[in-house]
Amino acid sequence: MRHLLSTKTLSQGEALQILDVAEDMAAVSTREVKKLPALRGKTVVNLFFEDSTRTRISFEAAAKRLSADVINFSAKGSSVSKGESLKDTAQTLAAMGADGVVIRHHASGAPHVLAESNWIDAPIVNAGDGTHEHPTQALLDAFTIRRRLFGDRSRGRDLDGVSVVIVGDVMHSRVARSNLWLLQTLGAHVTFVAPATLVPFGAETDWPVGISYDFDQTIRDTRPDVVMMLRIQSERMNAAFFPNAREYSREWGLDDARLASLRPDTIVMHPGPMNRGLEISAGAADSAQSTVLEQVTNGVSIRMAVLYLLMSGDREVQP
């Protein structure tokens, strides 16, 4: 694996390898000294053309725990705001000796363009491109599900037979797309629940996913192991996709009543940031079934694993 651009192209073996190495990284993170020397002397560039808190800080923490040097690049206040192209930015980073690039970009496909070019000779990690994909988010979600379901027996396990319901703004969600491809590869059954206006065209026929427009009926029919709520991405909407916030919350939000209708062991997930009171209630977000903070913690372990596998040349963790 030269780059990590998409979960759609990950084999089950590659996905399980990342998840298993992340188990080792999680163990490292519990030590008093939370560092490995694996990437000492290497430089990781966080190249972010969109705003981010969790993902950027998580990648920075992951790189530093592997002893890499980190350069954080933000498009705001840089030459990009003056019209510099992605090519010129990449060539500048190459001249500075970047050994790995983590890129978030508002344009779908930008990480693929960077990886397929000869502008920079370094592994590229997609940290979110437009509405296309967000592979490390899907990996940390799968890692979280596996740990909740199997505990100490997680290593080497896929998610065969696990029922996952993903609810909300599927149309604009790169998280939903990456989770669909990865969870399907790992053997899970995925159902999208959303207003008809927020289901991507062709999803019903072209994607390996169940489609529902009725959240309550889906809960009754599937008795899901996992319910994953998606953020309403109003910044990507240029039209009215539902009448108002109150109606959306009533029909497709995870409120306290819907939480009570779930199995007691059903996992509640959200990639963040959350719109409390819209797609998820405070009671659901803060419940014992919620994994929201675990997902943040596990994100560091997953991103350590990805950087380690792409940049160290090793396939086993050397403490």
Question: Which descriptors apply to this entry?
Answer:
alpha/beta, Rossmann fold, 2 domains, five-stranded parallel beta sheet, 12 helices
Summary of the model, kept short:
InterPro entries: Asp/Orn_carbamoyltranf_P-bd (IPR006132), Asp/Orn_carbamoylTrfase (IPR006130), Asp/Orn_carbamoylTrfase_sf (IPR036901), Asp_carbamoyltransf (IPR002082), Asp_carbamoyltransf_Asp/Orn-bd (IPR006131). With 319 residues, the chain is of the alpha/beta class.
Topology:
Layout: H1 12-28, E1 43-48, H2 54-65, E2 69-74, H3 86-95, E3 100-105, H4 110-116, E4 124-129, H5 135-150, E5 163-167, H6 174-185, E6 189-193, H7 203-206, E7 210-212, H8 215-222, E8 226-229, H9 245-252, H10 256-261, E9 267-269, H11 282-285, H12 292-311
Parallel strand pairs: 1-2, 1-3, 3-4, 5-6, 5-8, 6-7, 8-9
Helix pairs in contact: 1-5, 1-12, 2-12, 5-6, 5-12
Account of the protein in words:
The chain has 319 residues and is α/β, with parallel strands linked by helices. It folds into 2 domains: 12-133 and 296-311, Rossmann fold; 135-295, Rossmann fold, CATH 3.40.50.1370. 39% of the residues lie in helices and 14% in strands. The chain contains 12 helices and 9 strands. It has helices at residues 12-28, 54-65, 86-95, 110-116, 135-150, 174-185, 203-206, 215-222, 245-252, 256-261, 282-285, 292-311, and strands at 43-48, 69-74, 100-105, 124-129, 163-167, 189-193, 210-212, 226-229, 267-269. The strands form 2 sheets. It has a 5-stranded parallel sheet, sandwiched between helices. Helix 1 packs across helix 5 (135-150) and helix 1 (12-28) crosses helix 12 (292-311). The protein is globular, with a radius of gyration of 19 Å. The relative contact order is 0.17. The mean pLDDT is 91. Keywords: Pyrimidine biosynthesis, Transferase. Catalyzes the condensation of carbamoyl phosphate and aspartate to form carbamoyl aspartate and inorganic phosphate, the committed step in the de novo pyrimidine nucleotide biosynthesis pathway. Belongs to the aspartate/ornithine carbamoyltransferase superfamily. ATCase family. It catalyses: carbamoyl phosphate + L-aspartate = N-carbamoyl-L-aspartate + phosphate + H(+). L-aspartate binds at residues 82, 174, 231.
